[in-house]
Design a protein that fits this description.
single chain; Immunoglobulin-like; six-stranded antiparallel β-sheet; 25% strand; 11 helices; TIM Barrel; binds alpha-L-arabinofuranose; alpha/beta; 2 domains; 503 residues
């Protein structure tokens, strides 16, 4: 058996954990909105057509902020199509996903749903096919109290109180040539800074996110961030990161080390942002909004899902409906560990996405809603990771991967909440075969006991929850955990994720 050791000490703090780290993302894509959160004919639908079973699952998931309405979708979206009387809302081609957008749901309905799930709205403006004026219009509609054409239109549409949206994304993935309106970093940076300045004339306190790269594999990665930040530095608060992971050619050893890649990505973007800070002699620090992250079987989308027929523009087709396994959930939990480890600079993040589309929650039209494997690490981490992230001393054996270089077998992060005296430790064992005996030195925490131990593993690492078998995979207790003489000891099964709470 492999052994690993780590030391937890609340005196050494990385940074406070912003609740916005537990955000998610709802895009008008596939069945995320229609037949996902919204299904008027469903037996569980409320008066607004929203599924109550989905609302309950979203609440239990513990999602802080939700990015909306896209994604690639936003770069062709006309926000005003989605407000006002439903019968006069146009049906439009959605070029991003080769679908028909009915506009039954728009900003007002989504804001109503967000109140039900108790989450904050993070709104993306269209800088693909639109620009400054459109951003100002939607800002006026959403945030201005009254007395102007657009704020009065919102009131007439039933929303008397302004939405007070704080976080705004200045477009989406503008570095990708698949994006409507894609340009060079200089072109995008100029448009983003003009939009930001205009929006700040309405409200200087808005929190604005400039588009970073759509992945660290993009050929323009890092140069894109540098140039965009050179243009926008004084006007924005965040640069975005997006990253998706999947096993390539059955190489699960590399896949399990995906968080190593995420760590490097974050460190590179921080270095680039700080380089621009130094060039400008600025005292302001730009943080990261990691506003798309997940496991995503992108190869399946390209090979199976993608619609290209010029006569086919379906409404809410089944797109990107990945079924997540135990190994996916372990990688996913590890990505959360990476985000938490960077809590000083990653101060917002959005799991992409929330329902049906690469999602922790699945639904069947007229039928059930259920939790995918990835639901569990998110819900537990969101519940337990409070206060501050701690610097960890981790001693673990390593292994070599083909895709991400050297990775430790164990990865971990710890958080500490001074107000409750609780410490949470999140761990993964990336080994495909071997158990790990982990010893956590908790002596500095004093006489603490175990509050909970929740793990995810299975003899079949490909086990998943499906409509037919929705509870095949669930959290399991780990009976090996013991705390005595200032040390927590437990066995981590191969390919496992674990959260321990001590107080
Ligand atoms: O989340 C799915 C898609 O991935 C988003 O629309 C886009 O921003 C990204 O490429």
């Amino acid at each position: 058996m492999i052994s690993a050791h780590l030391t937890v000490d609340p005196h050494f703090v990385v940074g406070p954990i912003n609740r916005r780290l537990f955000g998610s993302f709802v895009e008008h894509l596939g069945r995320c909105v229609y037949d996902g959160i919204y299904e008027p004919g469903h037996p569980q639908a409320d008066a607004n057509g929203f599924r109550r079973d989905v609302i309950e699952l979203v609440r239990e998931l513990g999602v802080s902020t939700i990015r909306y309405p896209g994604g690639n979708f936003v770069s062709g979206y006309r926000w005003e199509d989605g407000v006002g009387p439903r019968q006069s809302r146009p049906r439009r081609l959605d070029l991003a996903w080769h679908s028909t957008e009915t506009n039954e749901i728009g900003l007002d309905e989504f804001a109503t749903w967000l109140r039900e799930v108790d989450s904050e709205l993070m709104y993306a403006v269209n800088l693909g096919t639109r620009g400054v004026l459109d951003a100002l219009d939607v800002l006026e509609y959403a945030n201005t109290r009254s007395g102007t054409e657009l704020s009065d239109r919102r009131i007439a549409n039933g929303a008397v109180e302004p939405y007070g949206i704080r976080m705004w994304c200045l477009g989406n993935e503008m570095d990708g040539q698949w994006q409507l309106g894609h340009g060079t970093p200089r072109e995008y940076g100029r448009l983003a800074v003009k939009t930001a300045r205009a929006m700040r004339q309405v409200d200087p306190t808005l929190e604005l996110v400039a588009c970073g790269s759509s992945s660290a594999q993009m050929p323009t990665f890092a140069e894109w961030e540098r140039i965009v930040l050179e243009e926008t530095y004084d006007e924005v608060d965040f640069i975005s990161c997006h990253a998706y992971y999947e096993p390539v050619d059955g190489d699960y050893a590399s896949f399990l080390a995906s968080a190593v890649n995420m760590d490097r990505f974050i460190d590179s973007v921080v270095a680039t942002a700080d380089h621009v800070k130094a060039l400008r002699g600025s005292s302001k620090t730009i943080n990261i909004s990691f506003d798309e992250w997940n496991v995503w079987y992108q190869s399946r989308y390209a090979d199976v899902d993608r619609i290209t027929d010029v006569d086919q523009w379906p409404v809410a087709p089944r797109l990107l409906e990945d079924v997540y396994s135990v190994v996916d959930a372990v990688v996913f939990g590890n990505l959360l560990i990476s985000l938490l480890r960077h809590a000083d600079r990653v101060t917002a993040a959005s799991l992409a996405q929330l329902v049906n589309v690469i999602a922790p929650i699945m639904t069947e039209p007229g039928g059930a809603a259920w939790r995918q494997t990835t639901y569990f690490p998110f819900a537990v981490t969101s519940r337990l990771a409070r206060g501050v992230t701690l610097e960890l001393k981790l001693d673990s054996p390593s292994y070599e991967t083909d895709r991400h270089g050297v990775a430790t077998v164990v990865d971990a992060v710890a958080t500490h909440d001074e107000s409750t005296g609780s410490t949470a430790i999140f761990l993964v064992n990336r080994s495909l075969e071997e158990e790990v005996e982990i010893v956590v030195d908790t002596s500095i925490l004093g006489d603490v006991g175990i509050v909970s131990v929740e793990s995810l593993w299975d003899d079949d690492i490909h086990a998943a929850n499906t409509m037919q078998d929705p509870e095949r995979v669930a959290l399991r207790p780990n009976d090996s955990a013991r705390i005595a003489d200032g040390a927590l000891r437990m066995t981590l099964p191969p390919v496992s994720w674990t959260a321990v709470s001590v107080r």
